[in-house]
Amino acid sequence: MTDDATLYARMLGGMEAFFGLAGDTSPGGFTIRRTGVLASVCPEMSHRSVFNSVVYRSTPRLEAALDELADVYAHAGVAAWTVWTPEPDAGARDALRRSGHRLDASPQAMAAPLDEIDLTDGAGGIEWERADGAEEMCAVLGAAFGWDPGPASAVFARLPQRGHVYVARLGGRAAACVAALDAEGDCAVFNVGTLPEARGRGLGTALMRQALADARRRGCATTSLQATGMGRPIYARLGYRELGVIEMWERRRGRRQDGT
Fold first, then answer.
1. What DSSP letter does each residue of the chain carry, written as one string?
2. What is the pLDDT of residues 124-141, one digit of tens each?
3. What are the tens digits of pLDDT across the range 40-98?
4. What is the average per-residue pLDDT within 162-172?
5. The domain 112-244 belongs to what CATH superfamily?
6. 102 and 259 Cβ atoms separated by less than 8 Å
7. 158: pLDDT strictly greater than 80
8. Could you report how far apart the first and last alpha carbons of the chain are, in Å?
9. Is-same-fold flag (4-107+247-252; 112-244)?
């Protein structure tokens, strides 16, 4: 049985792969890679901190890198960036507060061996396809989360070739989406969204099952994601384990050191 610590480490690997891809392929963007610290820099989405994400495995190395990261993001014209921090890491939280970050969101880290996931029927019963572009996915995410679809599509233009993008339709219109990226045997899931008017129909769940069934056929052994409050019960029903809160500590240009 895969233990939670192993699943958490695999989740971090998936986050590094996903945010590294975003930085590497975003117009004008790049990825900072230091021992124990990875940061995506996406000026195309300068005001959306989730696109400009820092993932770390070493708290001392994160603390040592904070000033450099702040300078790099400022020079790149990025107005908001975030550090994904395990809730028990009090040292990182204190350092981030001192650096002008504030707690912005508290997703739940979730992961599971694929043989524990309910893959019944995959996406059977809905209209769906594997997308070869990012535009429809970003249109759904724009409506679901308020992203600007044009710049988001530019950031994720290569995701369908490097990973796997699934789109569900209602009446021929893209209504839900899921993206998956393989990382050392883990199927890392991101960009799960459904149009507000299409929620409650099981589209996202069906796409998740299809994406994970495909991942198991490719040889992936585990899957991971970071769940919002809305998505958390859905993923739990599929079989994901809760691994604890992973907080998003955001630094936004113009905010004072006291967070105001």
1. ---HHHHHHHHHHHHHHHHHHHHHHSTT-EEEEETTEEEEE-GGGTT-GGGSEEEES-HHHHHHHHHHHHHHHHHTT--EEEEEEETT-HHHHHHHHHTT-EEEE-PEEEEEEGGGS--TTTTTTSEEEEESSSHHHHHHHHHHH---HHHHHHHTTTHHHHSEEEEEEETTEEEEEEEEEEETTEEEEEEEEE-GGGTTSSHHHHHHHHHHHHHHHHT--EEEEEE-TTTHHHHHHHTPEEEEEEEEEEEETT--TT--
2. 989 999 999 999 999 999
3. 999 999 999 999 999 999 999 999 999 999 999 999 999 999 999 999 999 999 999 99
4. 96
5. Gcn5-related N-acetyltransferase (GNAT) (3.40.630.30)
6. yes
7. yes
8. 46
9. yes
Q: pTM (2 decimals)?
A: 0.95
What is the residue whose two structure tokens read 């192993």? 6
Closest of 130, 111, 135, 106 to residue 15, by C-alpha: 111
CA gap 60, 57 in Å, rounded: 9
Q: How far is 20 from 229, CA to CA, in rounded Å? A: 25
Every domain of the chain and the residues it spans: 4-107+247-252, 112-244
